Amino acid sequence: xxxxxxxxxxxxxxxxxxxxxxxxxxxDLYENVITGLEFERLSTASGPTGGKIxxxxxxxxxxxxxxxxxxRDKQVGNEYCSRVCCMYIAKQAQLVKxxxxxxxxxxxxxxxxxxxxxxxxxxxxxxxEGVKYIRGNAAEVYKKKKGGKIIVKGEDTLLGKVVxxxxxxxxxxxxxxxxxxxxxxxNLLKLPKDPDNFLLEAHPKLRPVDTxxxxxxxxxxxxxxxxxxxxxxxxxxxxxxxxxxxxxxxVENEPIVAVVDESLCRGCxxxxxxxxxxxxxxxxxREGFLFVAHSNEARCKGCGACSVVCPSSAITxxxxxxxxxxxxxxxxxxxx
Length: 336
Ligand SMILES: Cc1cc2nc3c(=O)[nH]c(=O)nc-3n(C[C@H](O)[C@H](O)[C@H](O)COP(=O)(O)OP(=O)(O)OC[C@H]3O[C@@H](n4cnc5c(N)ncnc54)[C@H](O)[C@@H]3O)c2cc1C
Fold this sequence. Notes:
By secondary structure, this protein is α/β, with parallel strands linked by helices. The protein contains 8 helices and 16 strands. A 5-stranded parallel sheet has the order 3-10-4-5-6. A 3-stranded antiparallel sheet has the order 7-8-9, with no helix packed on it. It starts with 7 loop residues before the first strand and ends in a 6-residue tail after the last helix. It is about 25% helix and about 20% strand. The longest helix is centred in the last third of the chain and has 21 residues, at about 230-250. Strand 5, helix 3 (about 120-130) and strand 6 (about 130-135) form a beta-alpha-beta unit. The radius of gyration is 28 Å and the shape is elongated. The structure holds flavin-adenine dinucleotide.
């Protein structure tokens, strides 16, 4: 479909961390090691068991959650916190308790980050309801003998001892990673990414839903891991920014943009390769003969990168010509 549009909100979400990259947790070996997202499906009324929490046809009596699988983990290259796992573990643990009141539920955690409104109270409540939290990373999931129960081994760092817990079901709280599906649109729109590969906002505090490309906004986990309330808030902000721009009916260009002096341009194309915003293109000035650079004022962000690489000084920034800058440099120093 071809649509005539004024603004774009990118809301391409996240992918789950691939648990096979942590082979010590046995995701590829054992049927009863599943991810948090698979548990969501298992426990939903429209899921394969009609909402009953069953694994291999039986209700699990010993359930272990492992937090931070693929988050806060230098080994796999994801140093960031996925923000939602601590609370979805608490939610899922409570769900298991509700369905199977005599279940033994253990959570291996790194730190519990119950940061949102009412989250700390909810975390305290699931502990009161009997969910046991062990502070420490689980080291491995294995079976002692064929047909036996799986065992989760880890260190209780508060007691300073190694613990081994038998489990009928292990739930890996896999973190969020940037969406692969998003790459096509991200490349198309030339959106920059942050060091963790999520999409970069124009300013973390003052322009958190804008991108550096005018008229393109961000919402949700494409920008960084977040829960539903934060996603909804950001989506509403992005929608309002988009509507405000369109309601105005026109856009104002940056006053400082690149200007090409065609008589000086040699058509080397270095500026085209350098411009991050696709604001410079080649223009044929005589039929089949000479190409020179031409700047698109609507796209230009006035960063000046093209001006710096131009070997023939054919590009200057509007209101910041070389002569103006040199005049400022040479101006006599006046003490105030
Ligand atoms: C196991 C688990 C449990 C959770 N439980 C909770 C909870 O209880 N409470 C809570 O607040 N949060 C929870 N979360 C977090 C919640 O999932 C996210 O906050 C929320 O999904 C973020 O919404 P989003 O729209 O940014 O991304 P998504 O939900 O990922 O939606 C993005 C959508 O964009 C689509 N898409 C991607 N690329 C393209 C493209 N190029 N073109 C068109 N479409 C595209 C995707 O297919 C997807 O449908 C949980 C997360 C997990 C992993």
